[in-house]
Amino acid sequence: MEIKVIDGGVCAPKGFKANGVYCGIKKPSIDNQNPAAPHKNDLGMIVSDSECCCAAVYTTNKVKGAPIIVTKNNLEKTGSKARAVIVNSKNANTCNADGVEKAEKMCELAAKELNIKPEEVIVASTGVIGQILPIEPIEKGIAPLVAGLSYTGNEEAAAAIMTTDTVKKEYAVEFSAGGSVCRIGGMAKGSGMIHPNMATTLNFITTDVKISAQMLQSALNDIVKITYNCLSIDGDTSTNDMVCVMANSAAENKEITCEGEDFENFKAALYEVMMNLTKMLAKDGEGATKMIECECRGCPDTNTAITVAKSVVGSTLFKCAVFGEDANWGRILCAIGYAPAEFDINKVDVDIKSEFGEIAVCRNGAGVDFSEEKAAEVLKSDEIYVIINLNAGENSAKAWGCDLTYDYVKINGDYRT
User: Fold this and answer.
1) What is the dihedral of CA 138, 69, 399, 316, to 10 degrees?
2) Mind listing the pLDDT tens digit for each residue in 276-331?
3) Is 207 a catalytic residue?
4) For 220-231, how does the pLDDT look when each residue is reduced to its tens digit (9 = 90+)?
5) Catalytic hit among 200, 201, 304, 405
6) How far is residue 280's CA from residue 289's CA, in Å, rounded to a whole number?
7) What is the CB neighbour count within 10 angstroms for residue 349?
8) What is the pTM of this model?
9) φ and ψ at 167, to 5 degrees?
10) Cα–Cα distance measured from residue 339 to residue 348, given in angstroms and rounded to the nearest whole number
């Protein structure tokens, strides 16, 4: 199946509008070089022209943000149907006595302005934990937010969910299913407090595919396991993590209600979007200078491959070595060795590569001679690839992360203040 990359983010599929505005949750921007510089968006919205089937996955942290609780309740009330998303940044609305009340109020404000029911709204928040969310800025910002909704408003919405992110993260594709041209688009946020433990960060995905809620949830569960759940920036699982997919049927394809070719095509396209957003999140890790992709091949099953690859990208010591451009392959073997999986370490091979070349550093569980000069050249790239072969089967999986730098500590040392 051909999958074509297209522009438009969450507005790429038919029938989706979006927008983002500055309402005052974030502090006003101060740019001495350009006093007229616009403030950074802190309130975003996605709206479908028609009712959507919706699937979602949430953080497994026992501490859950109020928006997670309200969104789950809303989708239970509607039978996994939704029309809109409202999301704010800077404040997570978590660990607050009035958190649920504020999250419900956000749904009510959006619903009133959109002339839909409050339970048809998905609500999300991201930012500092434990600070009261001021509702007044959102009350003032909701009218201009809705008034500015457009079929090209994806970039404004993507900007509204950014916290310590340095770039907007969007991706969209076009493909065929059920006799129709279909599209999937997504936007994501996340830079720190990210660790594979479903889900990671806030991720909103739209599609015009006609698919049942049951099959949509099945597809999301399958793909999140091999994308977002294989991402680790710093080992911290957030309280507000959520991935939701909204499908509005505007492509008018034959409805996907069971497994088959159309369902597999949909999953392949969903993987393309979610995998690329995952890589963007890894590359934009707080303070990061390098993205790390680890592929584990030759495994007896997929779970073993995922476990080993995740262990490597989650290794603090290996992250530091990548930052220092040091081919300290022993740290890779160490991370492989403590992965909770069964395999023969004496059969393991490891290579490191980038756009500047590839080096073999380990064969059959032992080091091999390599040029330190060549290794230094390979590690100069901002994208580093580790290839592990367990030589024990035909299965493989990838995981993504980033290096650990001085700036990570600086960013998180005074994040709240």
Assistant:
1) 80
2) 999 998 888 788 899 999 999 999 999 999 999 999 999 999 999 999 999 999 99
3) no
4) 999 999 998 888
5) 200
6) 13
7) 18
8) 0.88
9) -140, 150
10) 13
